[in-house]
Every structure is written in C-alpha cells, then in structure tokens.
UniProtKB/TrEMBL annotation:
InterPro entries found in the cross-reference section: AlphaKG_dependent_hydroxylases (IPR050411), TauD-like_sf (IPR042098), TauD/TfdA-like (IPR003819)
Lineage of origin: Bacteria, Bacillati, Bacillota, Bacilli, Bacillales
Protein's UniProt keywords contain Oxidoreductase: yes
Protein name: TauD/TfdA-like domain-containing protein
Listed cofactors: Fe(2+)
Alphabetized UniProt keyword annotations: Oxidoreductase
C-alpha cells in the first residue's frame, strides 16, 4: 500500500509543478504548460511526465511549453535530446533551411514578407515525422506567428463529395527540380549521385525522368486521407491545396506559367489518376484550413510541440528579426 501511495503522491506533486491551461477558453489547441516554480527544469519534468504529455498531445494536437528557461538554442537542443529519440533529417524537403546542430534546423528561410500556407510536414513522403517541435529564439517586431490548424477539423469542414473523390483517387504531386525556382535535386535528395536518386525514387514509389538540361522531374501518388495510428481518426493529411498552382500569387502564377508552362512548374498537384484539380476545389480546401486556423504571438523561449499528423502549421509575414528553430522525429511509414 505504501508504494501505491508514494507513487500517487509523486504524480500529484509532478502535476503541481506546472500549470495547464488553454490560450483561449473553448479552444483546445494548443494546451499551454507553464512552470509553477521558478527554475523548473523542463527536461527533467518531461522525463517524469512523458505519459502525461503523450496523452495530452493526442487530445489537443499540440502543447506550448511557455515560461521555462529555454531561451537559447542549446536549451532547445537538450530538450530535443530527451523528447525526440528518433529525429529525422529533412530529406525530400521543399524549402530552404539551414542545419543548425544535429537534426535541428532553422525554420523555412523564405523572405519575411511571404506567407507560408498551412501544411503537415512531409505529408507527401513515404516516411514522415509524427511529431515536430518549434522553438522561438528571437521574436519578430511584428507578425511572424506560426499559425496551427487541427486537420481533424479540416477533414470535417471539407465537402464530403470532394473528400470522396480524393478518397477514391488519392492525389499526385509533380515536382520539377532546379528549373530556377524549385530546389535542385542535389539539395532535396542530399546527394550528387543520379544513381542514388533513382534508387530512392524506386524505393519510395516515385517515378522519375531526367530532362535534357540535367534537371529532374518526379511524380508520386499518395492518399489524401490518412488514419492516425494512435487515435484512428481520419485526417486531411496532404499538400493538395498547398502546391496547387491556384494557390500562388496571381502575378507569380502568370509569370511562371508563361515561363515554364503547366508541366514545367516547380510544383503542381493533380488527382491521383493525373486529371486536373479544378481551382474551385483547391479554393474550397484553402477555406477549410482558414476556418480552422489558430494563431498566437510567440514569446521568447516558447517551445511548441505538435503531433504533425493531427496539426498543420504555417507562417505569417513579419518585420524585424525572427529566429525559430525546428526539429522533427518519430518516423511513421505508409
């Protein structure tokens, strides 16, 4: 009896070390965890409460650790060491970012005036990260939020007739590497070897074509809807709207179509059978994301831990300096 009492008392004490709350009443995402005592070691608390964290992240989709002594890159590296046993590299990635240390990267290095639309990281690959971590090191003077979107809600907001077509056909991503706008194949696949690229494509259900100018075109068909391995919920887990040409700024889209044509765009999405997706369908999907989006201002030292399958993330434009570090891990495969 004494052992049970001691264990129960210890659990109560651990919970009392932190305060759990919601950023906005009635809004489940994210759950906020703050220390109740000064100097509380987040790493040690996490190790002692890993089961609690796992339970909460499946319910809420994401946890914002705020108010801990985590204002330096080194503190984030240490937290990743204890919370991310299987970190992933950014292979088959699509955006410029810098490897900082180990498998910690900078967030996407797009110009600060650009918006990055909501997406689940690497939803188009055969093995993707189940979790993703963001750490706010420098807060922008204005803007720079990382909006988050529960894709369980997105799934429910999409017209069932549209969902059914994608459930039947899946979706296709066509990528052209190194055309002047997209990333080069050397950057994306982390190699200078065409043979290694071909082997990777064959192992990951991708078709490939080497163009006369040495650039590469790949095609891959993936499901639009994925079932979460732990919760068994249907998730709108894809980049369909994100990379559809209608999502581009109109001026940029017209310039790129004039320069490369439909088949030469760095990215384009289709139904899984290769038929075109009407722009109105992509617009409907974008609206579903928008209706489910939650945004909050970063604070220095914030760490946001997301279930990458349950929650998509984005980036708002900003002014001034901004530094957000990213890590991803816990691989899940189709």
């Amino acid at each position: 009896m004494k052992k049970k009492f001691d264990k129960g008392a210890q659990m109560v004490m651990q919970k009392e070390l932190v305060k759990q709350s919601l950023l906005t009443e009635g809004q489940e995402l994210p759950l906020v965890i703050k220390p109740n005592i000064a100097g509380l070691d987040l790493n040690q608390w996490y190790v002692n409460n890993k089961e609690l964290v796992e339970e909460k992240i499946l319910k809420h989709g994401g946890i914002l650790f705020r108010g801990f002594e985590t204002k330096t890159p080194e503190s984030f590296y240490r937290f990743i060491d204890v919370s991310c046993p299987e970190p992933l590299s950014y292979k088959e990635g699509a955006t410029p970012r810098t490897q900082v240390q180990g498998k910690v990267y900078t967030s996407t290095e797009f110009p600060n005036e650009e918006t990055i639309a909501p997406h689940n990281e690497l939803s188009y690959v055969m093995t993707w990260p189940k979790k993703i971590w963001f750490a706010s090191m420098i807060v922008a003077d204005e803007g720079g939020e990382t909006p988050i979107v529960d894709v369980r809600k997105v799934y429910n907001l999409i017209d069932p007739d549209i969902r059914d077509v994608f459930a039947e056909k899946g979706w296709m991503l066509v990528r052209n590497y190194g055309s002047g706008f997209g990333q080069t194949w050397q950057y994306v696949f982390h190699t200078e070897s065409k043979e290694e690229v071909e082997q990777y494509c064959q192992e990951n259900n991708m078709s490939f074509h080497w163009n006369e100018d040495g650039t590469l075109t790949t095609k891959q068909v993936r499901p639009a809807i994925t079932i979460h391995p732990d919760t068994n919920e249907n998730l709108w887990f894809n980049h369909i709207a994100f990379w559809h040409s209608s999502s581009l700024n109109e001026e940029v889209r017209n310039l790129m179509l004039e320069e490369f044509g439909e088949e030469g765009l760095p990215y384009q999405t289709y139904y899984g059978d290769g038929s075109p997706i009407d722009p109105s369908v992509a617009a409907h999907i974008r609206q579903a994301y928008e209706d489910a989006t939650i945004a909050f201002p970063w604070q220095e030292g914030d760490i946001l831990m997301l279930d990458n399958m349950l929650v998509a993330h984005a980036r708002n434009p900003y002014q001034g300096d901004r530094k957000v570090l990213v890590a991803m891990g816990e691989p899940v495969s189709r």
